[in-house]
Amino acid sequence: MLNFDDAEAHLEARPAADVFRALSQLRLTENDLKLLRAHYAAPRMTVTAKEMARRTGYKHFGAANLHYGKLGRRLADALGLALEYPVQSLVTMAWPTGECAWTLRPQVQEALEQLGLVAAAEPQQDPEEEQWLREGKLVRTLTNAYERNPEARRRCLEHYGTACYICGFSFGEVYGEAFRGVIHVHHLTELSQIGEEYVVDPLTDLRPVCPNCHAIIHQRKPAYSLEEVKALLARRRKA
Question: Which GO molecular function entries does the Swiss-Prot or TrEMBL record give (predicted)?
């Protein structure tokens, strides 16, 4: 079992792709998502147990601590780690004011975004700061997001592979095997258009696309079709 310091050193060096794969394997409950989204939405993605309880509606911080710890243990198990403090798989821990503060690990932040479980918002301007072009301060807020099903994603990639359906780019081939599972999954019909929960067919409704092609798809409302983006790319390559 890894103690606090050894676990911190190990988790800090753990590739983001490992956390992405481990998190995508978990069957996240509504309660799990509530905790993760509340943490992601917190200023600087940092909360105490009391703040987490307030943000998620728990009557006592001990309940939030307990449930977040259980989620951390499940993620640690998926990573193949035995941790003295399982919540470390999700967070870094510090005691700036004597009370433990949890900060969501960057690898977990990235995995949540890639899985489509959270929606990143534009950083907000701090009114107390001077109006200069400052950078580096990160402020996140929770916005409406349509829940994605990790199992549907898995089945889509199992069928189509992890190369981009549009341009053929493969993270695994370019950056190495550790990154082969890094890919976005695109809904051919936007969830915002459907507007309600429905049963997704991973083979007919989803396609793997790289972040670049995914960004181009959503540069228009309604979104470009995969065929339109393929045509754009073909014309540029021909030119």
Answer: endonuclease activity
Identify the H or E element spanning 207.
strand 206-209
Give the neighbor-by-neighbor strand order of the sheet with 91-94: 46-48, 101-104, 91-94
Regarding pTM above 0.90, the answer is no
Kindly state whether residue 85 falls inside one of the protein's structural domains. Answer: yes
For residues 128 and 120, give the distance between their C-alpha atoms in angstroms, rounded to a whole number: 23
- The helix/strand/coil state of 60 is coil
Q: Are residues 101 and 202 in the same domain?
A: no
How many domains does the chain fold into?
Answer: 2
The 3-state DSSP class for residue 104 equals: strand
> Based on the domain organization, do 79 and 29 belong to the same domain?
yes
**What number of H helices and E strands is found in the chain?**
11, 5
Does residue 201 have a pLDDT over 90?
no
Q: What is the pLDDT of residues 66-111, one digit of tens each?
A: 999 999 999 999 999 999 899 999 999 988 888 899 999 999 999 9
Least confident of 15-19, 24-28, 146-150, 201-205: 146-150
Residue with tokens 């700036």: 96
Q: State both tokens at 30.
A: 């509504």
In this prediction, residue 50 carries a pLDDT of 93
What is the CB-side half-sphere exposure of residue 142 using CA atoms within 13 A? Answer: 16
Phi/psi of residue 209, each to 5°?
-140, 150
108 and 30 housed in the same domain: yes
**What domain range includes position 30?**
4-114
* pLDDT tens, residue by residue, 138-170: 545 444 444 457 888 889 999 999 999 999 999
- Residues listed for the chain: 239
